[in-house]
Design a protein that fits this description.
Elements: E1 8-11, H1 20-31, E2 36-38, H2 45-55, E3 59-64, H3 69-82, E4 89-93, H4 103-112, E5 116-118, H5 123-135
Parallel strand pairs: 1-2, 1-3, 3-4, 4-5
Length: 163
């Protein structure tokens, strides 16, 4: 199966002013062959949603290093889903200030519409996710991780808008 390059929209969170993580992620994704639009740091929900509508990316990657990624990411993915957008959205980095991954936060992010949540530094899982997404392009469907509900026929269940 041939791999397709995925147009990626990369963004920081509303309260995260760090840029080095976004530069690192952009370079990594481009080295993997994917075109990347980097919205930069401190991206509001409105700016992210408008960029998704205008660019129709194949994937949104939200990156955070300030420890508030969970709160900001939850707001961002809810805004994207409220706008009726079904683009795959993933988030990773330092999502909380406790220093350890929080399974409840991960569940809330997935329930709100994230297609995957990556622990800080788990680049190999992100690469695997993007590779699967690129392979699914042959059928015009997005491949999403097992965390997304599936129908009896094995297809991703219809996305509902999250309020």
């Amino acid at each position: 199966m041939r791999r397709r390059n995925v147009n990626i929209l990369l963004t920081g969170t509303a309260s995260d002013s760090h840029t080095w993580n976004l530069v690192y992620m952009q370079l990594l994704l481009e080295e993997l062959g994917h075109p990347v639009t980097n919205l930069g740091p401190c991206v509001t929900d409105e700016l992210l949603t408008a960029a998704c509508e205008a660019q129709e990316p194949g994937l949104v990657v939200i990156s955070s290093v300030n420890g508030h990624g969970y709160r900001d990411g939850l707001s961002a993915v809810r805004a994207v889903r409220r706008a009726g957008l079904t683009v795959p959205v993933v988030i990773g980095g330092k999502l909380g200030v406790a220093g350890t991954a929080d399974p409840e936060q991960r569940t809330r992010l997935l329930d709100a519409g994230c297609d995957a949540v990556f622990d800080d530094g788990d680049v190999s899982a992100l690469k695997s996710f993007i590779a699967a997404l690129g392979q699914g392009a042959r059928t015009g469907r997005h491949i999403v991780p097992r965390t997304v509900p599936r129908t009896a026929a094995g297809q991703p269940a219809a996305r509902r808008a999250v309020a």
